[in-house]
């Protein structure tokens, strides 16, 4: 059941990203074969990872106008061979793209998306897995790889799982699913593979990759955790995570969208709705926003949203972002601009871009009901569980009392050992 929820969550994230792409390209989908090819490769990147080896696509069984055999793979590097049963190892694929940039190749190594990837086998013997590489067009290449897995006896081992966050599209969840040879309370030192680090007292953590550089269709990271027990014995576990670079892809499809990092629950006072945002220009051209559209959705979901066109200067400290740089600033929306019953606010920023295009940034904010009339009494239930009330109060102290506490917040804080 847990695995089903995880896969469903990843599918939801993938669909959300897919719909984001479609929302800015809807007029081109039927007419552009290039757009369709890019959507096909996005689907390849966004297919949820599974616990089992995924059979490769056989080009001979697919009509040639849909897919063609190519020779992208030049070499497959195994970090070690043989490997111990239960031990992780890194696989790196060296590939060249004769049809375009190497950055437009995307990878699946066994059941893992991205390149390089971390694999492990729990049983000894000669094991096999497939490497699949494709471009954004109709070309695909694959290889079968063998590795010798041996029993190495008792040694400290840590198994680290990595998966895309089921609610935050640019984040990942890392969790230690098993550890052997370690005793007592442990400390966990994390290296997320993007130059950032953390330390925890539990084997569970989330991390955002929203500020990553997007130089190709796919971004892959090797994540490492060092677990040290009460006796000073330590073991290292690794996993890999890969993200479809939807913002890079949006530029190829004709309407560039830049990533924005922020908390979807803003601060609210008497005059303003305020949230800190970090906008990153991943492109080679400067960006200057000149238009902002506010979509105000009422708390009563049966009513239609209200739209307002405003000057971005009314809500932003700076509307300019230099190429390949980030701008961190406060976004301040005057409450006077919004209908009193607004519970969801979508802000779409846009500005001119080369070749007569527009560049976009989107911010989605959740606003708690401001009056009793805005509360949907058909959905809200009174909580009478004393333990849950205590958890909600602790969560409010940690996350802030100005935002609603979701079941996902409770689960996350529990797994982090904070509740």
Draw up the topology in text.
Elements: H1 2-23, H2 33-46, E1 68-69, E2 73-78, E3 83-84, E4 88-95, E5 106-109, E6 112-113, E7 117-120, E8 125-134, E9 139-150, E10 157-164, E11 171-180, E12 187-191, E13 197-200, E14 204-208, E15 218-228, E16 234-244, H3 246-252, E17 260-262, E18 267-268, E19 272-281, E20 287-288, E21 291-298, E22 306-310, E23 320-321, E24 325-334, E25 342-353, E26 357-366, H4 386-399, H5 407-415
Helix pairs in contact: 1-2
Defining key terms:
419 residues, alpha+beta, Immunoglobulin-like, 3 domains, six-stranded mixed β-sheet, four-stranded antiparallel β-sheet, 40% strand, flat
CATH superfamily of the largest domain: Immunoglobulins
Enter the CATH topology name of the largest domain. Immunoglobulin-like
Multimer state: single chain
Counting DSSP H or I runs of 4 or more residues, the number of helices is 5
Shape, principal axes of CA atoms: flat
Just give the CATH class of the largest domain.
Mainly Beta
